[in-house]
Amino acid sequence: MGKRFDRVVVVGYGKATGNVLKYIEEQRQAYGYQLEFIEHELHALSITRKICEERGIPYTSMPDKHELAAYLCSIMEKTLIVSASNNFLFPAVCVEKENITIINFHNALLPDYPGRNAPSWVIYQGERQTGITWHYVTAGIDEGNIIIQKRCAIGPEDKAYELTERLMDLACEGFAECFAAVLEERAQTISQGSILGRRMYRSTEVPGNGFFELSEEPEAIYRLLRSVDYGKNDIFPHMQTVVDGVRVEVIRYRKIVPEKKKDEENVIFLPLSGTHLLKIKYRIL
Known about the structure:
Distance between the termini: 64 Å
Order of helices and strands: EHHEHEHEHEHEEHHEEEE
CATH class of the largest domain: Alpha Beta
CATH superfamily of the largest domain: Formyl transferase, N-terminal domain
Oligomer: single chain
Number of strands: 11
Number of helices: 8
CATH topology of the largest domain: Rossmann fold
Helix content: 25-40%
């Protein structure tokens, strides 16, 4: 098969990026491109760095966004940039270079839920399904033509970190399905259509503005708590409420059966639909 791209540059971090990187490395001999990896958001135990060391892939740590932009803009060969789990915004001067093509993974079904933390927002808004999108990158955020999408259900108990894991797996599946077409410049894409005025989710935004009233529907409170739950990763601050006139923050929550209810300090119980309770442990601010 003829070589369409001289170089493939992967930018990202984490498990999904590592799996994408391994797949691209496995295809390298067939397509004859050079491959390199850039880690923009650094992690102490870098999965991607280990993969690069094991497979002889050139690795660069480049946390400075200006340095990264300058480096990518300096590329002269015909290059495919794969942005996977990456929060770097490619400058227009780089996106518009004729020798550079950029594809990006987004963890929602574009054109809905563009921007950051999409798994949180789909849970918070009560969506019943979501998915992933691989799309071409343009100067606008998450606006480029769609290459492939894959869908999954959102379960009534799903927490943000659990949904994120499933979306990462879907992203790898979708990438393997479309990579050859992208490399051979034959991908059949779909326009996102009119996106004027659509809601863009920012990294500074928090579902519910980080607060709920105990008078709200317990199911809505449970949905809010699940939407910001990333396990040990502190993506969002603790949710806050008011208990007996005192401002508190939630430190733990669980859905339990009534038989497990017992009096505890700084704990409240809210009735959920069916026969369950929402147990909320808090601390006073």
